[in-house]
Amino acid sequence: MGDHGNRIGSIQRTYIGRIEERAPLFSIRLPDAFTYKYQEETRNLKMNMKSLMDEVVNKDRTCEDAGIPQNFCLCMERRNLRRLNSTSTEFKNLTELARNIIAKSDCFDVKHLQIVSERIDVYAINQMVRQGLRNQTE
Q: What are the annotated GO cellular component locations (predicted)?
């Protein structure tokens, strides 16, 4: 039985380890004797294993709506990379990389690619999770 990802040892100091520690999961392996003795209960567990049991969840629900503390929230936040603007070398390199990737696709014509913004936005987990903080005061 387990209730979360691996959270002990050197893995917790890595990016993936910080996510694992905050990704709740409840899993069980039923002993053969249980599945034999309690066949109806076993069937019910299998039917419900990928279901939320109490209510339908709004797809726009936030961690705050669900009562999940910020240091455990794994929702992605949109962030602007200010240093990557149309005059930076990195922006130009990323633009060229995008053009090259699109050029390899049969679905798109790179000649029609237009850059519609002079900045780059990315999605990332919140800073508390990225840094492995357990509360606001760390």
A: extracellular space
- The span from the CA of 82 to the CA of 21, in Å, is 30
CA dihedral 50, 54, 58, 63 (to 10 degrees): -90
Question: How does strand 76-85 pair with strand 119-125?
Answer: antiparallel
Q: How far is residue 90 from each of residues 61, 80, 83, 95, measured CA to CA in Å? A: 35, 14, 9, 8
Q: State how far the Cα of 2 lies from the Cα of 25, in Å rounded to an integer.
A: 7
Helix H or strand E segment including 94: helix 89-103
Tokens of 42: 């076993």
> How does pLDDT run across 18-48, given as a tens digit for each residue?
887 787 677 788 999 999 999 999 998 888 8
Please give the Cα distance from 37 to 124 (Å, whole number). 47
What is the per-residue pLDDT across 93-129, written as a single tens digit (0 to 9) for each?
A: 888 898 888 888 888 777 777 777 777 777 888 888 8
Note the Cα 93 to chain centre separation in Å. 27
Residue 84 near residue 121, CB atoms below 8 Å: no
